[in-house]
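Progress note, sequence design subtask.
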């Protein structure tokens, strides 16, 4: 996918309404209202999929305003990296378990947060190592290479 399409797609996937992606119609209507111009849902789809990759400045400004990101997101790599990092944090905070960990960490002193960070790093390393083994042919007897021991249909491996 062209870089513009990647960025538009990322906005769709991470900036959500009521727990779901915006529809092309919602984005087109919002952009039309924000820009005072016309946007079609087909045009929005074309931008997202890379079928069109040379929109006007006005169209990019309207998309940026709709998704509440700076227009420079589409032009400047540093801005895009910063916004992507902010989107990742916002997305993670939408997960109740991540939010619970963050809230608990806030009530800890510096020492407690350092210990928690070390534990999280260790668990992450263990998870990465297990994932690497799984992709290189596990050989550890788990069903279908699934780290939870599930059969390929997603059920627990009972041997039946």
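Output:
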């Amino acid at each position: 996918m062209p870089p513009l399409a990647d960025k538009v797609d990322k906005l769709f996937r991470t900036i959500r309404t009521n727990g779901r992606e915006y529809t092309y119609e919602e984005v087109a209507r919002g952009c039309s209202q924000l820009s005072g111009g016309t946007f079609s849902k087909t045009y929005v789809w074309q931008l997202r999929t890379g079928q069109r990759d040379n929109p006007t400045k006005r169209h990019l400004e309207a998309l940026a305003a709709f998704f509440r990101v700076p227009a420079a997101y589409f032009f400047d790599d540093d801005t895009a990296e910063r916004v992507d990092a902010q989107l990742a944090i916002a997305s993670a905070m939408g997960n109740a378990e991540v939010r619970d960990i963050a809230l608990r960490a806030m009530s800890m002193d510096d020492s407690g947060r350092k210990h928690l960070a070390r534990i999280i790093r260790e668990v992450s390393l263990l998870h990465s190592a297990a994932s690497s083994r799984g992709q290189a042919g596990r050989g550890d007897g788990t069903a279908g290479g699934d780290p939870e021991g599930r059969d390929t249909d997603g059920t627990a491996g009972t041997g039946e």
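The radius of gyration is 21 Å. Work on this subtask will continue into the next period as scheduled.
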